Amino acid sequence: MGRQIRPAGVFDATALRLKSTIFPKHSNVEPPWFRVMNSIPPAESVVRTITPRHHEPDPRATKPKDLYRPQNIRYLEDSLRATFFKDHPWELARPRVILELDGKDYQYCDWSKGLRQPEMPLSGECVVQRQLWLMQNEKLSKRKAYDLVRWEFYRLRQAEEIESRVALEEARYTGAYFGKSKLNVGMMLEDREYENWKIWAGKQTEKLAARASSDIETYDVEEVGDEFEETDLGPAPSETELQHGGKPNLRI
């Protein structure tokens, strides 16, 4: 199959058409892409380049697979996050504020001082960044750094829970009322749905029982009625018809 060079001449053909004066009274309309293509022309080479690879291909592969597909971008923090949230899945349920004012919040963090950072609540991201700092600066292994940061995280999280529990007890002691917790509200909604389901299940059971009993009661009656059903043969033939050999009038 030869090279397709016709698309490359679209711009030149359009430029000639705009300069044409065959019909003076007819104005040629400039396409929206004409000026863009004039300022940023496409590449002359039609050869598709291969994406550079950052790791060696699989030597067991006999055919190149995904030769032109860009490779996945992986960072060291990705594996650290996967390990932490696999061990602590409920940390994902905690709400987080990901809004940044200038996008430079990372410059205000000094992970050499621990997990507590200014204007940043304690979360799994603190564990990841602290572990990464220990691996790069203290030259600790991944498992050793993870264990150190994890125990520090447990200690701080426990202190937060104790602080919130004490504050709640003090507020209730002074007469504060907080209403039902999220767990109690969820259990209440679940109980309500369960009661509605019991009512629906009871009605369905009654319908099935009534249908089954009606089938049993009418089954014998219909069978007996079919067996003893009499055929209407009409009035009996008279003696005159019998003497003349007439056929009786049968009505079925």
TrEMBL record:
One example GO MF annotation: structural constituent of ribosome
Keywords of this entry: Mitochondrion, Ribonucleoprotein, Ribosomal protein
Region ranges (Disordered): 224-252
Keyword Cytoplasm: no
Gene Ontology CC, one term: mitochondrial small ribosomal subunit
InterPro entries noted in UniProt: mS23_dom, Ribosomal_mS23_fun
Subunit and interaction comment: Component of the mitochondrial small ribosomal subunit.
Protein name per its UniProtKB record: 37S ribosomal protein S25, mitochondrial
